[in-house]
Amino acid sequence: ARDDLFTVVHEQFLTDTARYADIVLPATTQLESTDVVQSWGSFHVNWNEAAIAPVGESVSNSELFRRLSSALGFDDQPLFATDESLLAEMLVGTHPRAQGITAETLRANHTMRLTVDEDFRPYAHGGFATPSGKAQLSSVAMANFGLGLVATYEPAMEGPHGDMARAFPLSLMTPKFHTRFLNGAYAHLPNHGGREGGPWVELSAHDAAARGIADGDTVEVFNHRSTLTLPARIGTFVRNGVVAVPFGWHGTAHIDGRTANALTSDTPTSFGGGVAYSDTMVDVRKPL
Fold first, then answer.
1. How does pLDDT run across 50-106, given as a tens digit for each residue?
2. With b meaning 16 or more CB within 10 Å and e meaning fewer, what string describes 119-133?
3. How many Å apart are CA 119 and CA 139, to the nearest integer?
4. What is the rounded CA–CA span in Å between residue 13 and residue 10?
């Protein structure tokens, strides 16, 4: 929304982020891409063969980078490596846990299991990536970054014991609660996000009763930053003093077009410079 920020988004769908873009470039899907993908919950490596050619003007991430490199006049050859050559370079079949797994063998077999014992405890005998090879309870490297020699507790910038809790006494969680879509992908499709019945806010029976809220009521989740209008669910998923607004649905699925991001702080965390999503205090009320 800023006039001084030119934004380009490479996407498959018109997400909330893409709606802010000055230019949206079409990206390929998994069906149009040849790649190597990991498994969830197993030790297999999998070959993803493109099922169809890229549709329309859509291109993969790597092809977009190759085109940008050319347009910008770069001539470093690694910038123009093909997907096939990159996969061949990555899969050479010599790593102890990936012996025999090359781009050629994996493409022929479609899926191959890593050489991993059934009793897989990778650090049972040490081998950590530390100077001593042992797990470190104190770290000079961390201290050199100004993070402290050992991990220490720091009160949340916005927590239930801080000043903000006087006005907004409920801690906001934004968990993954859905089963029909992944993060924000496909959430805009009726058979995915629509069938999840969301978005909503869940609060405990104790906190709901204190605010005169019944299951199914339309409520406002609010703090000093913004307000979300959502249906309420009363359940046992969250304890007293906590509310949950599951993430993943696009702004277009919300009554007021705002997601939980409108309630969270954009202040970077002291460790890693991330975002303290879980350090957010709110309250819930029936619409005024």
1. 999 999 999 999 999 999 999 999 999 999 999 999 999 999 999 988 999 999 999
2. eeeeeeeeeeeeeee
3. 30
4. 9
Report yes or no: 228 and 251 within 8 Å, Cβ to Cβ.
no
The whole-angstrom separation of Cα 16 and Cα 254 is 12
Share of the chain above pLDDT 70, in %: 100
**Residue tagged 């490297």 (tokens):** 141
Contacts of 164 (CB under 8 A, 6+ apart): 158, 223, 281
Q: What is the structure's pLDDT at 58?
A: 97
Q: Rounded distance, CA 139 to CA 141, Å?
A: 5
pLDDT of 7 strictly over 90:
yes
Instruction: Specify the residue for token string 């005024």.
Output: 288
Of 270, 155, 162, the residue nearest 223 (C-alpha): 162
Q: SS3 of 210, please?
A: helix
Q: 3-class DSSP state for residue 132? A: coil
CB 61 within 8 A of CB 27: yes
Region of 111 (left: φ > 0; alpha: ψ -120 to 50; beta: rest) is: beta
Region 124-131 average pLDDT: 88
The residue type found at 236 is T
Q: Is 264 in contact with 277 (CB distance < 8 Å)?
A: yes
User: Would you say 247 and 182 are in contact if contact means Cβ atoms under 8 Å apart?
Assistant: no
Residue keyed to tokens 């307000």: 227
In tens, the pLDDT along 235-276 reads 888 999 999 998 888 888 888 889 999 999 888 887 778 888
| CB-based burial label for 2 (10 Å; 0-12, 13-18, 19+) | exposed
Q: What is the DSSP string of 252-275?
A: GGSTTS--GGGTS--PBPTTTT-B
